[in-house]
DNA sequence: ACCTGAACACCGTTCAAGT
DNA sequence: ACCTGAACACCGTTCAAGT
């Protein structure tokens, strides 16, 4: 007879492990994703993890690629502007669902399969739409810069200490000596209905307009 | 007579400490910036650090703000497009000199004085150039998205394992099944003279063109 | 084949003590 | 006022051992 405190065998797998890691990062934050906490959540001892992955980095690689796997793959031979808009919104949404992903991307050493598939799809759309190789490089770099950077700003805004009211927050910063920020806050940011995220569609349209110029000129 | 192994007193200061932290992050990487390593480099015991800062987060806040302090402050009443181009290039350069800064920005809870001064200067330029409050918000969000996101991509590209030749690298990824990436690599990225960073000026011009549209329409 | 216990070399940080 | 020693509660990971 087996001890009741012993976990059943063969229940751990790479997939279960990666799914649990992603859930833990989403619910408790990336700093709570430790091998020990992950094991404990799976009802297993820390060292059991290492039977399914070589090290923690492999887990981080996997959850970053899982985020790419959630994004829309644009189709060639469909209107390129709408396809790229949809894929860019989809990346934006995925990075908002998993705000820890951006930080991890900086230190990944190899792109995963979903990342590569996403890359391939975007390249195919641009090349099929008639972008030259050079214009494709510039277009892709600029569009991805926009979506990554926009999400980064959203993460930064979310991490700013929001204890107390917005007025308290602004009072805490030294807005005396910064009249434009004070004006901008009072007359725009603190007005009802303002949302940083509303700039996303404006910026996206602006960048897509620029891509069309690139496509025409090359 | 004092023991030779004892560090002289009063040599530690907040400034020396922050400068040493920035140097350490630049030279050895952000993961090498530990309280213990920092203390050792300053010829002091770890706990001496805590006499000048409350905790490690305060050091990270300080070195992030030091990066902002290196960036160009745009002037109002000068041609706004050239001023913002110069400031954007300057942010790009600073983030390339200190590639660890982007990752830290995501978790900072309060903007430092140099960060606020930068914010103020950009707002003043946009408002003085005739951007409405709404257009200013969209313009600033889009321009910063571009530069942060572009730098993030550069950090990501730098962290990709570059052991061996570029051909080995591409062979390591599964480019079979990804014909567009294979084509793009062979015919463009691997050609002599290609550099990812060349897309920066193109994207910047594209975004600034878009800002001019925003300024006119609002 | 899969899981565990104990240990190692690290962290940031508290607390009490020295000069 | 400024610095230190020892200790605590954490990490990821190695190694040898259990079933």
From TrEMBL, chains A, B:
Domain (HTH tetR-type): residue spans on this chain: 11-71
InterPro entries reported for this sequence: Homeodomain-like_sf (IPR009057), HTH-type_TetR-like_transc_reg (IPR050109), HTH_TetR (IPR001647), Repressor_TetR_C (IPR004111), Tet_transcr_reg_TetR (IPR003012), Tet_transcr_reg_TetR-rel_C_sf (IPR036271)
DNA-binding region: 34-53
Gene3D superfamilies, per the entry: Homeodomain-like, Tetracycline Repressor, domain 2
Protein keywords: DNA-binding, Repressor, Transcription, Transcription regulation
Stored Pfam families: TetR_C_1, TetR_N
UniProt protein name: HTH tetR-type domain-containing protein
């Amino acid at each position: 007879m087996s001890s009741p405190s012993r976990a059943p065998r063969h229940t751990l797998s790479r997939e279960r492990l990666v799914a649990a890691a992603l859930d833990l990062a989403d619910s408790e934050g990336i700093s709570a994703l430790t091998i020990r906490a992950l094991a404990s959540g799976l009802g297993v001892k820390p060292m059991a993890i290492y039977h399914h992955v070589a090290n923690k980095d492999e887990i981080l690689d996997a959850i970053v690629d899982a985020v790419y796997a959630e994004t829309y793959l644009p189709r060639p031979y469909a209107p390129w502007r709408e396809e790229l808009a949809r894929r860019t919104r989809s990346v934006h949404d995925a990075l908002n669902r998993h705000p820890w992903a951006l930080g991890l991307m900086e230190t990944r050493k190899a792109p995963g399969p979903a990342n590569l598939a996403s890359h391939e799809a975007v390249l195919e759309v641009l090349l099929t739409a008639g972008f030259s190789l050079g214009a494709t490089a510039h277009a892709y770099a600029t569009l991805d810069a926009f979506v990554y950077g926009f999400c980064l700003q959203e993460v930064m805004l979310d991490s700013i200490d929001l204890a107390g009211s917005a007025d308290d927050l602004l009072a805490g910063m030294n807005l005396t000596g910064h009249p434009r920020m004070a004006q901008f806050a009072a007359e725009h940011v603190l007005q009802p209905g303002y949302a940083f995220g509303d700039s996303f569609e404006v910026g996206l349209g602006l960048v897509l307009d620029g891509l069309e110029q690139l496509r025409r000129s090359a």
